[in-house]
Design goal:
Layout lengths: L9 H4 L12 H10 L1 E5 L4 E3 L9 E6 L2 E5 L2 E5 L5 E2 L1 H6 L6 E4 L3 E6 L1 H10 L1 H17 L5
Antiparallel strand pairs: 1-8, 2-7, 3-6, 3-8, 4-5, 4-7
Helix pairs in contact: 4-5
Length: 144
């Protein structure tokens, strides 16, 4: 695990152009990236399990691919820029899906305390999480 990523990191540079962070200024994106922790996730690692208590962490996929399943059925495969964990954080509910790495992956993690701090310092960040959670809850078939 590497702490406090350099916002000029080439892999993180592509985060500046992702839809998931649209609405943030370049300065805000740099602030968000700098607040995160880069986490290496090995192939096959289960990041979250459906119906477990959410730990409040939010993740942005930097590289690699993860499978998202509900009730044992794959509902999507992530790609760089996708958000994970925003539903539990925003809605305060149990995990709505199981997330498993299907390749080695690199994620930018924001623990609950960092999400709270960023939400206060960069209100547009909280709005992004709320918008993403709302879209996903309305789209995914299993949300209880």
């Amino acid at each position: 695990m590497r702490l406090f990523p350099d916002p000029s990191n080439a892999r993180l540079e592509r985060l500046f152009n992702l839809d998931s962070l649209s609405g943030l200024t370049k300065r805000e994106i740099r602030q968000v990236i700098a607040a995160g922790t880069l986490v290496d996730v090995p192939d096959g690692h289960v990041l979250a399990t459906e119906e477990e208590l959410a730990n409040g962490s939010v993740y942005v996929v930097v590289s690699g691919s993860l499978s998202v399943t509900q009730v044992g059925e794959q509902i999507r495969t992530t790609e760089p820029g996708d958000l994970l964990g925003e539903i539990g954080t925003v809605a305060g509910i149990y995990r709505t899906a199981t997330v498993t790495a299907v390749t080695e992956a690199e994620l930018l993690q924001f623990p609950a305390t960092v999400v709270t701090q960023l939400s206060a310092e960069v209100p547009a960040f909280r709005a992004i999480l709320e918008r993403a959670a709302g879209k996903r809850l309305s789209r995914d078939r299993y949300t209880e």
